Model the fold of this input.
Amino acid sequence: MLQQTQVSRVEQYYGKFLLQYPTIRDLAVAAPAQVREAWQGLGYYRRASNLHRLAISIMEERNGIMPESVQELERLPGVGRYTAGAVATFAFEQAEPAVDTNVGRVIRRAFFSPRARVTEKRIWRLAKTLVPRKGKPAWTFNQAIMELGALVCTARIARCGECPVRSACRSGQKNLTTEARNTRRMHGMRLSRASDNIHQEKRR
Done:
């Protein structure tokens, strides 16, 4: 549900969907029209179809057991690299990267100059090196960097002054330096105006 959809929208559907289909088996035996109806209003209906196909595949080919590795997860209907990484790390505490739009933006800003041409492959390779080698720290790291991109290092505004990792961020250091320079310039202009006002008062 979170593929290309904000959390605020997903919250309205996730709980209801799980109540209707609490297990993989329940989802697998449902009629396609019922699954689509449960998804009604969330958009991108191909996701619902893929999820239904995934449940059927797991029941028929894997005896109802979800695979844990990224490689096996990616073989399932509708599961790409990001979804496989997210399921592996959050459901099974695997030390795997999960690079969505927010995470990719954070990595680009932190490690590369704004004009650099950075491929998706390079982003994923760097993300792999950043993820802690153990499951629970990897879970925490992936959750934190996703939240950082969603709430602080956003697409429209990079809130560098609020960022907890700004000292290690290439763009953050540059933005803060520029902000400090502008602040000093504004302060100097105010002092200059104040000085001019004092001189004018003295002349009077």
Remarks:
- DSSP finds ten helices and no strands in the chain.
- The first helix runs from residue 7 to 20.
- Confidence is low (pLDDT under 50) at residues 179-184.
- Residues 93-204 form a domain with the Endonuclease Iii, domain 2 fold (CATH 1.10.1670.10).
